[in-house]
Design goal:
92 residues, single chain, two-stranded antiparallel sheet, three-stranded antiparallel β-sheet, 16% strand, alpha+beta, 4 helices
Length: 92
Amino acid sequence: MICFTDSDCVPLVNWISALLDGFESDDIAAVAGSYAIRNQESFLAQCIHQEIKDRHARFGKQIRAFGSYNVAIKRPHSIKRGVQRILPIPQW
């Protein structure tokens, strides 16, 4: 499993476990969610975040694209789709 969040996002304490709960069946390759903002005192950031939350609320249960701000991808699927070209795969 590979989990991503952006540096300007604030993951909740249960961030990873909430993502993992989304893998309800073996045919699900990735799970994505929304996020909280770090700079809550900024009016502009609040407006942008509200627009993003509204947009995410309109998404259905299955989506075809997602951002890197909050996502978990099963590792075999990420390798097939080219994530290894973007991020170095650690050797462990």
